[in-house]
UniProtKB/TrEMBL annotation:
This is Uncharacterized protein. It comes from the Eukaryota. It comes from Cirrhinus mrigala (Mrigala).
Length: 58
């Protein structure tokens, strides 16, 4: 019989801001905005939020 996951296990800690992964994500996001002249509000779109959940489900 499967066991239920603890609620605390469902919430992973975010990357530390100084981590290499966090820096790479920030740089890539900046390029995404700047290269295509996208508005900063793109982060509020459902599609963008879904993409981030798929890429990094934290």
């Amino acid at each position: 019989q499967p066991q239920q996951q603890l609620l605390t296990a469902a919430f992973k800690q975010p990357f530390a801001p100084e981590s290499e992964r966090a820096k790479a994500i920030t740089k890539s996001f900046g390029m995404f905005i700047a290269a295509d002249m996208r508005p900063y509000s793109v982060v509020e779109n459902k599609g963008f939020k879904n993409l981030l959940k798929v890429l990094e489900p934290r």
